[in-house]
Design brief:
Elements (H helix, E strand, L loop, with lengths): L5 H4 L15 E3 H8 L3 H9 L5 E4 L3 E5 H7 L8
Antiparallel strand pairs: 1-3, 2-3
Amino acid sequence: MVARSVHSENPDLKMPSDHRTVGDLVTVQETAIWLRETERSVRRRIAGGQLTAYRLGTKRILLARSDVEALLVLIPTAA
């Protein structure tokens, strides 16, 4: 059996331009590991507006990888 995309079955169905794919999203735990901080700190960043989060179902919280990367600021060095 070949898996088919919903889009191939219905060409009129279009994804919004701001849609995210699963690979673009990370969990609170993955974000905490990546930033080397606690999950609580990540949740504080969400509550404080530093990070935008998306709720999936009743418990799962996902963050856009690009939003997490935007937190990282390059520190200039002396030339």
